[in-house]
Amino acid sequence: MKFIDEVKIEVLAGNGGNGCSSMRHEKFNEFAGPDGGNGGRGGHIYAKASAGLNTLVDFRFTKNHRAARGQHGMGADRTGATGDDLYLPMPVGTIISDAETGEIVGELLHPDELLLLAKGGDGGFGNTHFKSSVNRAPRRKTFGHAGQKRYLNLELKLLADVGLLGFPNAGKSTFISVVSNAKPKIADYPFTTLHPNLGVVRIDFGRSFVVADLPGLIEGAARGIGLGHQFLRHLQRTRLLLHFIDMTEEVGVAVDNARIIVRELAQFDQQLLTKTRWIVINKIDVRLPEEQQAWVDEFRTLYFQNNPPDQPIFLISALTQQNCRSLTFAIYDHLTTSYEHQSRPTTDY
Question: Would you identify the CATH topology of the domain 162-337?
Answer without folding.
Answer: Rossmann fold (3.40.50)
